[in-house]
Amino acid sequence: MYRRCPVLAVIVFLLAAGSLLRAQDNPFAGTWKLNIEKSKFNPGPPPKSQTRTWDASGMVMVKGINADGTPMSYGYTIRPDGIEYPTVPSVPNGADKVVSRKIDARTIESRFMKAGKLLVTTRYTISEDGKSVIITAVGAKDVVDFKNAVVWDRQ
User: Fold this and answer.
1) What's phi and psi for 18, nearest 5 deg?
2) What is the pTM of this model?
3) Who's near 85: CB < 8 A, 6+ residues apart?
4) CA–CA distance, 42 with 74 (Å, rounded to integer)
5) I need a labelling partner for 110 at 20 to 30 A (CA). Which of 8, 9, 38, 76 fits?
6) Cis peptide before 6, with omega less than 30 degrees from 0?
7) d(CA 154, CA 28)
8) DSSP string spanning the chain?
9) CA 4, CA 86: separation in Å to the nearest integer?
10) What is the pLDDT along the chain (155 residues), one digit of tens a residue?
11) Residue 137 near residue 110 (C-beta atoms within 8 A)
12) In what order do the strands lie in the sheet containing 117-126?
């Protein structure tokens, strides 16, 4: 039994180190809080609050309170590999798939689709200091065109 402890400790250390390296490869990984004052919602109104958690593998979960006071939660996968990934139910734009590509070292573009039809194009740009992400989204919701520029601060 005592011989296995050092082996298990090494395995745990290697797994932890691997996940830290993956997080360093993804500058978007972390927890982000919506900065309503710096954001622009066209048309509005903005949500009351939102927190976005982006893990090293590209899974994004968003939780918060909508403008009308109702809780919301949804998720999707952002991996800039050109592969379509399913969204978690209740994505606000109604998309069922998302596909992403890398624009440059600090920018990823994603296309959200439903039944193969493009609904929203979104760009995620991380600041040079890594302390904020600006998400611009252009599309149509309920036959109303929208263009949002949303600022998120790293927590």
Assistant:
1) -65, -40
2) 0.79
3) 76, 77, 79, 97, 98, 99
4) 21
5) 38
6) no
7) 9
8) -TTHHHHHHHHHHHHHHHHHHHHHH-TT-EEEEEEEEEEEEES-PPPSEEEEEE-TTSEEEEEEE-TTS-EEEEEEE--TBS--EEPPTT-TT--SEEEEEEEETTEEEEEEEETTEEEEEEEEEE-TTSSEEEEEEEEEETTEEEEEEEEEEE-
9) 41
10) 555 544 444 454 444 444 443 445 899 999 999 999 999 999 889 999 999 999 999 999 999 999 999 999 999 999 999 999 999 877 887 899 999 999 999 999 999 999 999 999 999 999 999 999 999 999 876 656 889 999 999 99
11) no
12) 71-77, 59-65, 49-54, 30-42, 144-154, 132-141, 117-126, 107-114, 97-104, 85-86
Domains of the chain with CATH codes:
27-154 (2.40.128.20)
Tokens coding 44: 């509005």
User: The tokens of 6 are what?
Assistant: 């050092």
Region class of 101: left (phi > 0), else alpha (psi between -120 and 50), else beta: beta
In the block, which residue shows the tokens 């954001």? 39
